[in-house]
Specification:
The protein has two helices and two strands; from the N terminus they run ββαα. The chain has about 70 residues and is mainly α. It has one domain. A hairpin with a 2-residue loop joins β1 and β2. The N and C termini lie far apart (about 35 Å). The model has no long low-confidence stretch (mean pLDDT about 85).
Length: about 70
C-alpha cells in the first residue's frame, strides 16, 4: 500500500497525523502565545530564550496566515 498524505498546507505535508508530533510543551507555548495576544500582553524581558524564540515563530506564522487571508478561526 502506498503512503498517502493525511495533512497538508501549502508546501508542507505529512503521511502521519501531525498531532502525534506535538508535545505538551508545544501545546502550552501555543496556548500562552494566544492568551498573551488576546490580552494584549506584549513581549517582556522576563521570558526565557526558548519561549521568546517560540513566540517569534508563532507571530511570524500568524502574520503570514493573516497576510494570505487564510487564517482559520474557530
Amino acid at each position: 500500500m502506498e503512503p498517502r498524505i493525511v495533512w497538508g498546507r501549502r508546501q508542507v505535508h505529512t503521511e502521519e497525523c501531525p498531532k502525534s508530533f506535538i508535545r505538551s510543551e508545544s501545546t502550552a507555548l501555543v496556548e500562552e502565545f494566544v492568551v498573551r495576544r488576546r490580552l494584549g500582553i506584549g513581549d517582556t524581558l522576563d521570558l526565557d530564550a526558548k519561549k521568546v524564540d517560540a513566540f517569534l515563530i508563532l507571530r511570524e506564522q500568524m502574520e503570514r496566515e493573516e497576510a494570505d487571508g487564510t487564517t482559520q478561526r474557530n
